[in-house]
Amino acid sequence: MLTSDKFHDECGVVAIFAHPEAEKLAYLGLHALQHRGQESAGIVSSDGLNLHQHKAMGLVADIFTEDVLRPLHGSIAIGHTRYSTAGDSALLNAQPILVQSNKGAIALAHNGNLVNAQHIRQRLESQGSIFQTNSDTEVIVHLIALSREHTLPDAIADALRRVEGAFSLVMMSADRVFAARDPRGFRPLAMGRIAATEGHTRDTIVFASETCAFDLIGAEYVREVKPGELIVVGPDEITSRFYSTSAAQSSCIFEHVYFSRPDSMVFGRAVQTSRENLGRQLAKESPVEADLVVPVPDSGVTAAVGYAAESGIPFRFALIRNHYVGRTFIEPRQSVRDFGVKLKLNPVRSLLEGKRVVLIDDSIVRGTTSRKIVRMIRNAGAREVHMRISCPPTVSSCYYGVDTPSRTQLIAANKSIDEIRDYIGADSLAYLSLEGLKKACGEGEPTRYCTACYTGNYPTDIIDVEEILPAVVRR
Ligand code: SF4
């Protein structure tokens, strides 16, 4: 992620069943999913009888040292890396959530956001339930514990039928792993397999938000967990059931535009293919006479490759990103204009001088960063700057697990495209059309997408937008 003037990723989840070093595979999987959340991370493992956990604030590689992983040694594990979207970002709300219930010890890790969590919570609290966190995820645990169903899979299915919104979940008991997606399939969740070897005699089953986690642990992609599906992986068998089939699919199209890594398969489709298509489609819809196609790194790179290929205009890395930027900086007393952006990006003057530039990015949120980057490119000598955005204007907030600012802060919700062009100081500005976006991401073959942040048409009818706060992070 380049700057805070971006949408924030949500969370990443991983689960490992039947591996002699499940905790280490969970750790590696989380490491591959670090881009989905950088505030906290946790792993719960099972030694066959008891569950053990460790959660902390920070990055996966900093939290999980050899000493921390040693007591987590087990054959089953789940993990979570978090960027808070509901509940604040304190350690209390880090996941997985581990509880002792009347159905035994269970741990749960959640990617997404429930839109009826407050409503359920108030009802359960009025009936005597005591919540330990202010995360929306905890209502699922309470609903499982309170379910009248007698088996854990039945209780989980019962609980999932009562919650609304976005959830890709991995759960575990001492001897089983559970994986489920909400009936609309907002967030991704894939299943993979590591074939048995001499060291371990049965196949290992894994689940992860994105398949880039499989690559690191040597797992092969098997399939998506389907919307409304609950998969149970136990000592003797793998079972699947559909606890709900009532809703139309609405998977988050922004996973393909921005969130997921380009080396991942998401919703059964290669993100790289979608993202390059976005650039190609953008070049068809909004061509311009220019000398260079330049991406805003890293977010605009793949779409820029597509734009350059379609338009025939040369692609150049004319903005160089500093990869070693932490969170806080000491700024000189005499303030430097656009200091924050300059720390992270620097223009290549020798490429830009006298050139007409097509600048590609994946979104404009508030517009402040785009304005600074356009100014930076002009100051480096570019003759013209034409900004192209590989998705439509973002006009609405997300309530399904993506941290978007409120409508008042979204520039496209408050200004026309001409006004935005004037604000960022570009010679021209064009966004991809909604039809172009859907086409580039393969709408309908076989995935149907949510596009609510571009249209304001929310797929859940229960949502009372005025009453639900957009996801915010309180620091
Ligand atoms: Fe994704 Fe936008 Fe829908 Fe949220 S509103 S799930 S970001 S497409």
Care to describe what's here?
The chain is α+β, with helices and mostly antiparallel strands. The protein folds into 2 domains: about 10-250, Aminohydrolase, N-terminal nucleophile (Ntn) domain (Glutamine Phosphoribosylpyrophosphate, subunit 1, domain 1, 4-Layer Sandwich), CATH 3.60.20; about 265-325 and about 335-455, Rossmann fold (3-Layer(aba) Sandwich), CATH 3.40.50.2020. Helix content is about 30%, strand content about 25%. The strands form 6 sheets. The chain has a 7-stranded antiparallel sheet. Strands 5-6-7-8-12-13 form a 6-stranded antiparallel sheet. A 4-stranded parallel sheet has the order 17-20-21-22, sandwiched between helices. Helix 5 packs across helix 6 and helix 9 packs across helix 10. The radius of gyration is 23 Å and the shape is globular. The two termini are about 20 Å apart. Mean pLDDT is about 90; it is low at about 465-475.
What are the main properties of this structure?
disordered C terminus, Rossmann fold, 475 residues, alpha+beta, single chain, 2 domains, 17 helices, globular, six-stranded antiparallel sheet, binds iron/sulfur cluster
How would you characterize the largest beta sheet? 7 strands, antiparallel
Low-confidence stretches: 464-475
CATH structural architecture of the largest domain = 4-Layer Sandwich
Count of helical regions: 17
Superfamily (CATH H level) name of the largest domain: Aminohydrolase, N-terminal nucleophile (Ntn) domain
User: What is the residue-mean pLDDT, rounded to a whole number?
Assistant: 90
